[in-house]
Write a structure and sequence with these properties.
Layout: H1 4-7, E1 13-18, E2 21-26, H2 34-48, E3 56-60, E4 85-86, E5 96-97, H3 114-125, E6 134-141, H4 147-152, E7 165-169, H5 177-182, E8 191-196, H6 206-211, E9 215-219, E10 238-240, H7 245-258, H8 260-277, H9 280-297, E11 309-311, H10 313-319, H11 322-331, H12 350-373
Parallel strand pairs: 4-5, 6-7, 6-8, 8-9, 9-10
Antiparallel strand pairs: 1-2, 1-3, 2-11
Helix pairs in contact: 7-8, 10-11
Biased composition (Polar residues): 351-364
Protein name: Lipopolysaccharide-modifying protein
Domain Glycosyl transferase CAP10: 52-301
């Protein structure tokens, strides 16, 4: 079943862990260095918890979109879906969620590994008090990757309308190194509100936007990564309609400016979630539990695939150069940790899960009702 992901063209690489060592068989390289830094992150997990990751055989897709569609594996003659790891999924796909590559650095656009970047973002939050920030919603990114983002750019200020949004296009493929510096994430906590909107699928920018203690205006998402389902509307973020973005954003900004204490609290709660619940140690622990639970499902003994090469941190560092090498050194796990991984809580029972999801739905509907009434609570 695992090998079917290769024959169906669903995976960038196959990774086998055997007796604590990692072996990779690359089918096709990902965009930029996503595959390299994903493999690097798994190697750091093996260094952090040596001997504690069981033998396993996994396929990984590094694209934006989840790729295992449930509709392709339904019906009386359907085959079982191949297990493929990915960075995100939606309700129509069966990909296995895994933390994204950027936790260990994104050299192509000069984004640091998560630990030093999180410190920079924390410091950036202190440079300007919330009340002194620009009383508008801010977004900077590439609008050309999806219709959803192109639609957002209809909310740019014009002679006829001020939708209270300050939007800036950034084409990462064409940006110079100077352009990256001007896009330093720690320098972007200058507005009271920051917009998160998906690109082709989920966007890696979500954690960076939430880490500013500006109130996040989260345009209704379709996709989710490994932590997003823990976010609660009107607690960690303010929900924005996807079918009427401009008016929804304008209402959110005006509501926040007239309810500054509540808006600040939402911003701080979202930032606190990222700072405390998304610590690098917890990212590793999620990886640890995901791979351990996955390995339990294998019904065969993994073997090294033909043509696979062994990976080790030292050789990857030596083969890298520039920022990629710098980020690898900066994010390298120095050695085993004395502590054990966190204990996973039991899964939600159906009733509790339904109740949690319904509370989130109700909270979003309350915001939509306020918008429709076009008056403050």
């Amino acid at each position: 079943m695992v090998e079917r992901a290769q024959s169906m063209g669903l995976a960038n690489f196959r990774l086998v862990i055997l007796k604590g060592k990692a072996y990779v068989q690359t089918y096709w390289h990902s965009f930029q260095s996503r595959d390299i830094f994903t493999l690097w992150g798994i190697l750091q997990l093996l260094r952090r918890y040596p001997g504690r990751i069981p033998d396993l055989d996994m396929m990984f897709n590094c694209g934006d979109l989840p790729i295992v569609h449930s509709s392709a594996f339904s019906g009386p003659n359907a085959t079982s879906p191949p297990p493929v790891f990915n960075y995100n999924k939606d309700s129509t796909t069966l990909d296995i969620i895994f933390p994204d590559w950027a936790f260990w650095g994104w050299p192509e656009i000069d984004i640091k590994p998560w630990v030093p970047l999180l410190n920079d973002l924390k410091e950036g939050n202190t440079r300007e008090k919330w009340v002194d920030r620009e009383p508008y919603a801010y977004w900077k990114g590439n609008p050309s990757v999806s219709r959803n983002r192109r639609d957002l750019f209809k909310c740019k200020t014009s002679f006829f309308h001020d939708w209270k949004a300050r939007l800036y296009a950034q084409n990462w493929k064409r940006a110079s190194r100077r352009g990256y510096k001007k896009s330093n994430l720690a320098d972007q906590c200058t507005h009271r509100y920051k917009i998160y909107i998906e690109g082709a699928a989920w966007s890696v920018s979500q954690k960076y936007i939430l880490a500013c203690d500006s109130m996040t205006l989260l345009v209704k998402p379709r996709f989710y990564d490994f932590f997003a389902r823990g976010l609660i509307p009107r607690h960690h973020y303010w929900p924005i309609r996807d079918d009427n973005k401009c008016r929804s954003i304008k209402f959110a900004v005006e509501w926040g400016n007239s309810h500054p204490e509540e808006a600040q609290e939402i911003g701080k709660t979202g930032s606190k979630f990222i700072q405390e619940e998304l610590k690098m140690e917890y990212v590793y622990d999620f990886m640890f539990h995901a791979l351990n639970e996955y390995a339990k499902l294998l019904k065969y003994e993994p073997t090294i695939p033909p043509g696979a090469t062994e990976l080790c941190s030292e050789s990857m560092v030596c083969q890298a150069n520039g920022l990629a090498q710098e980020f690898m050194i900066e994010s390298m796990v120095k050695g085993p940790v004395d502590s054990s991984p966190c204990t996973m809580p039991p899964p939600y029972d159906p009733s509790s899960l339904s109740s949690f999801l319904q509370r989130n739905t109700n909270s979003t509907k309350e915001v939509e009702l306020l918008e429709n009434q076009n008056k403050h609570p």
